[in-house]
C-alpha cells in the first residue's frame, strides 16, 4: 500500500502559505508507517514546535492501473474518506529555503490520519463534495471539491503516469485554506458531507 499526497490543490491554501499556484498536480508520498487510523490519538513529535493540521479528502484505489486515462479514472476509486496530512511546518520551511527535500516534514510516523472510508458509489461524483475540520468545536477548515484546481480524475491520471496504482493505495487530494498549528489537548473532528468521519485527540 502506497500513500500519495497532492500539494497546493486549492488556490487559497497555496496563497496562504505564499506558494505559487501550480499548473499541474504537485505529488509527494508518505510511507505506510505514516498511517494513523481508528481514531487513535496523535502524539506531538519533539522535532518541531509548529505541527500543522491539513484536512483533506482521501481516495482509496480499488484496482490496479498504470497511465490511466482521465475519462475512466473515476472507476478506480473504491472508497472516499477524510484524512489529515500533519506537517512539521518550521522544518518544512527550513528545508525548502535550503532547496532540500522535505519528506521528513511530511512523511514522519503517524503523519497521515485516515478516517472512515465510504464506498465511492455512495457519492454523486458529478456534484461537489463538502467537508470540514473542527478544532476544539470550532470550524477551522471548509472544503468543497468544486474549488479544487485538479479534480479526482486528473489526480489519478497524473499519479498513474509515474507510479502503478494498486488496490488499497491512498491518495490525499489536497487541503483547503485554514491550516494551522496544534497543541497538546486539542481535539480535531472531521466531517464529510455533515457526517462525522474521525475524531483525534492531540497528546
Describe this structure in words.
By secondary structure, the chain is α+β, with helices and mostly antiparallel strands. The chain has a single domain (3-201), classed as Alpha-Beta Complex (Fumarylacetoacetate hydrolase, domain 2), CATH 3.90.850.10. The chain contains five helices and 15 strands. It has helices at 11-16, 70-73, 89-97, 103-106, 152-162, and strands at 3-7, 26-30, 35-36, 51-53, 55-61, 77-85, 87-88, 112-114, 118-119, 130-135, 138-144, 170-172, 180-181, 187-192, 195-201. Strands 1, 2, 3, 5, 6, 8, 9 and 12 form an eight-stranded mixed sheet that branches. A four-stranded antiparallel sheet has the order 11-10-14-15, with no helix packed on it. The protein is globular.
Instruction: Count the E strands.
Output: 15
Contiguous uncertain segments of 5+ residues: none
Relative helix content: 10-25%
CATH C-level label: Alpha Beta
- Count of domains: 1
So, CATH architecture? Alpha-Beta Complex
Oligomer: single chain
Order of helices and strands: EHEEEEHEEHHEEEEHEEEE
How far apart are the termini? Answer: 27 Å
Notable characteristics:
four-stranded antiparallel sheet, 203 residues, Fumarylacetoacetate hydrolase, domain 2, 34% strand, alpha+beta
Amino acid at each position: 500500500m502506497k500513500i500519495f499526497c497532492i500539494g497546493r490543490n486549492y488556490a487559497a491554501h497555496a496563497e496562504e502559505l505564499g506558494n505559487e499556484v501550480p499548473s499541474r498536480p504537485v505529488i509527494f508520498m508518505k510511507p505506510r508507517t505514516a498511517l494513523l487510523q481508528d481514531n487513535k490519538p496523535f502524539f506531538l513529535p519533539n522535532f518541531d514546535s509548529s505541527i500543522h493540521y491539513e484536512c483533506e479528502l482521501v481516495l482509496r484505489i480499488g484496482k490496479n492501473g498504470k497511465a490511466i486515462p482521465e475519462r475512466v479514472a473515476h472507476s478506480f476509486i473504491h472508497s472516499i474518506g477524510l484524512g489529515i496530512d500533519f506537517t512539521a511546518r518550521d522544518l518544512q520551511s527550513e528545508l525548502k529555503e535550503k532547496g532540500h527535500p522535505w519528506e521528513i516534514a511530511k512523511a514522519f510516523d503517524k503523519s497521515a490520519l485516515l478516517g472512515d472510508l465510504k464506498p465511492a458509489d455512495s457519492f454523486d461524483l458529478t456534484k461537489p463534495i463538502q467537508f470540514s475540520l473542527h478544532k476544539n468545536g470550532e470550524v477551522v477548515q471548509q472544503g468543497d471539491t468544486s474549488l479544487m484546481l485538479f479534480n479526482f480524475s486528473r489526480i489519478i491520471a497524473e499519479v498513474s503516469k509515474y507510479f502503478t496504482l494498486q488496490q488499497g493505495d491512498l491518495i490525499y487530494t489536497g487541503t483547503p485554506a485554514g491550516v494551522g498549528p496544534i497543541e497538546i489537548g486539542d481535539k480535531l473532528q472531521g466531517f464529510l458531507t455533515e457526517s462525522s468521519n474521525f475524531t483525534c485527540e492531540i497528546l
